[in-house]
TrEMBL record:
One GO term (biological process): methylation
Protein name: Putative O-methyltransferase YrrM
Lineage: superkingdom: Bacteria
Organism from which the protein derives: Lipingzhangella halophila
InterPro entries per record: SAM-dependent_MTases_sf
Keyword Thylakoid: no
A Pfam family hit: Methyltransf_24
Length: 248
């Protein structure tokens, strides 16, 4: 059976998987996941309803079948850190995550769920080296730095780190990265801007070493738009926007 590519990549309005990651970044996650060797892990910090999880699983399946682990506290986090907290913590959100993963064909062989905080789970990680770390959890600089510091010892030598919402000045993603991923050791940075709203969402891709100089390291890209139904609304720093039906 495997992961259902049609379901994961469905992007028609009203049919796409609920989530907060734009298509350009989902596609990049798929490609990066496909490049992770079988003996390395793919780890996602902040899964919400599983949109990006599906793309990571699909990419892994198309590549070397690296295992994907999703870390999120869902309803365990009760401090209201984000305007979206009521949605993040609602029981229906975790149910939606589980439902989406079941529908697309995730199994225990391909996917593990760790319900907890990114930094705590990272501190206890005993799995294989991580080839791809996708961060889309708490976007404050302090949280990003703490999460990265916890996972840094587990990253493979050629690991790739992707951080979502890196282009949003309301968040501290880039500041958190600079606190932990030393530019000398992690020289490659690529910023993917969301061309519909260059100061919302977006992702920063960080690589440890310049293995293939000239592939766009340090570039600032505005990928083709992917979210045609977002209209003129500005959902705010981390609100879901109209691509998430029913306020999900
Ligand atoms: C922006 S959403 C993630 C969106 C998701 N990547 C997608 O594909 O739609 C942020 C998620 O981070 C989770 N979160 C909050 N604090 C966290 C933490 N300390 N560690 C891990 N996840 C956290 C929230 O529960 C929420 O589900």
């Amino acid at each position: 059976m495997g992961i259902d590519a049609g379901l994961v990549t469905e992007w028609r309005r009203g049919r796409r998987a609920a989530g907060l990651v734009e298509l350009a970044v989902c596609r990049r996650l798929r490609a990066l996941a496909a490049g992770v060797p079988a003996d390395q892990a793919i780890v996602e910090l902040g899964a919400f309803k599983g949109r990006a999880t599906g793309w990571l699983l699909l990419g892994a399946q198309e590549g070397h079948r690296a295992h994907v682990t999703s870390v999120d506290p869902w309803g365990l986090r009760k401090d209201g850190y984000s305007s979206m907290s009521p949605t993040y913590t609602a029981p229906a959100t975790y149910a939606a995550f589980k439902g989406h993963l079941a529908r697309i064909g995730a199994t225990k062989d391909t996917h593990t769920v760790k319900r907890g905080y990114a930094a705590s789970v990272g501190a206890k990680w005993s799995g294989p080296p991580i080839g791809l770390l996708f961060h889309d959890a708490d976007h404050s600089a302090e949280a990003v730095a703490a999460d990265l510091a916890a996972w840094l010892p587990h990253l493979a030598e050629d690991a790739v780190v992707v951080l979502h919402d890196a282009c949003d000045p309301n968040h501290g993603v880039q500041a958190g990265v600079e606190q932990v991923l030393d530019a000398g050791q992690w020289p490659e940075r690529e910023l993917i801007r969301w061309n519909r709203r260059p100061h919302r969402r977006g992702a920063l891709i960080v690589k440890r070493a310049v293995a293939d100089a000239g592939d766009g390291g340090g570039a600032v890209l505005a990928e083709s738009d992917d979210d045609p139904d977002r209209g003129g609304l500005d959902p705010g720093a981390d609100a879901p926007g109209p691509d998430v039906p029913g306020g999900q």
